[in-house]
Amino acid sequence: MKRFFLSALALVVLVGIVAAVYWRPDRALEAASGLMAHNVCSATFISGLDAQATADELVKPMLPGFVGHALRFHVDPAGKTVDASVAGIKPMHAVFTPGFGCRLVLDPLYKAPAPAIARAASPADAFAPPAPVATDDPTINAALEREFTEQPSQRPRYVKAIVIVKDGHVVAERYAPGFTLDTPLLSYSVAKSFSNALLGILVRQGRLRVDQPAGAPEWQRPGDARSAVLVDDLLRMDSGIDAAETGSGFDAVAQMLYGKDDMAAFAARFPLKEPPRTRWEYTSANTLVLDRLLGLTVGDGASGMRAFADRELFAPLHMDHVTLEFDGAGTFVGSAHVYAPAREYARLGQLFLNDGIGPDGQRILPENWIEYSRRSTLGSPYGAGFWTNDGPSAPAAARVAHGFPKDGFFASGNRGQRIYIVPSEHLIVARFGYSPEPDFGIVEDLALIKAAIAALRLQH
Q1: pLDDT, tens digit (0-9, with 9 covering 90-100), for 372-415
Q2: Phi, psi of 103 (to 5 degrees)
Q3: Which residues pair with 94 in a beta bridge?
Q4: 3.10.129.10, 1.10.1740.10, 3.40.710.10, 1.10.10.10: which CATH number matches 164-459?
Q5: What per-residue string of b and e applies to 336-365 under the rule 16 or more CB within 10 Å gives b?
Q6: At residue 459, does pLDDT exceed 90?
Q7: pLDDT of res. 126
């Protein structure tokens, strides 16, 4: 019996060792520490928000309870850095650079770009006045109240900002305490719509094509099946790359975002699990490979991409307070890391609603780029960098049934960052917050869209 017990114990230990080697729990702890260090750094030094509130409302609810309780951070206001670790294990260090936001310092030899000089503010336009816009419409106000009012029976939604735009003018907006119309807000995957726009500009300029091979250097060996991946496949998430995004901390994308200096090189290492254009599967690894291509096309690393985006996209749209963040290789982290005020996200939505034409009448995106962006990929609820109501998918049908029109599409990020675009109604709704499941508060969002459409039809 003793021999049996020892054998069983040895088997359990062996299984535990094998599981630890395979699952690498240290990687999950690294991702948790990196998530805390990066998000608190950006919220503190880009947005001017309270560090502890950000940790409590945004970061900890995304983690298993025991990890959240053990996670600690320290903010150095003078050095503009944040350190975080889970009970002292796998410490991570984030540093802020003006104009470039925060990044995790994984390579001590990395030299950050020189701080960027902010350009002069854009001239005033008709899009929005200098003060928050209130509405006296009772239907819209009731829907806004529902968005911002926490329910005792539900997890807190932490809605922070909502802006409603009709016919190119802000008609209603609301902000949570501590947030204003100038507060830069985290994009999460809304950043993918920025990658879409930057690609669109390069396509209009004739410097890239969506039907050209993605051309990652890691895929150039003879016989590499990944050489068949097109630029379009990366934007549409049908490349077939085997890099899972589950949000567990163990997944490839978590390791990429919070454990790798060169995110695109890490993403490009993964093989294909199926041929390109065979099946849709959402993974931000696609976006980083695309963003590296955008950066190489523009040239001059992070500084070059920031200058390009400012000159070709942000200045023409009168977007004055956008921060793009970059990894240690100088690649724009266009899967997740943009900061901008809610109104400026709405301005980006207005560009897509207007078929790529800016507020001063200039063409920024190629003609018909919006139809390209909102077209369903392989029948999924996703287009090219946007979620869409186009196509036969059940999620699209459910959204339409709840009052979000069939021609609608939207940029969407983790925890409920969204830019809803309804071309048929000339309507934009930008909604940002820290909302958990189910589906990051979309039920309340759809009710708001439906209410806004009904009320604004009567007014116009």
Answers
A1: 999 999 999 999 999 999 999 999 999 999 999 999 999 999 99
A2: -145, 155
A3: 82, 104
A4: 3.40.710.10
A5: bbbbbbbbbbbbbbbbbbbebbbbeeeebb
A6: no
A7: 83
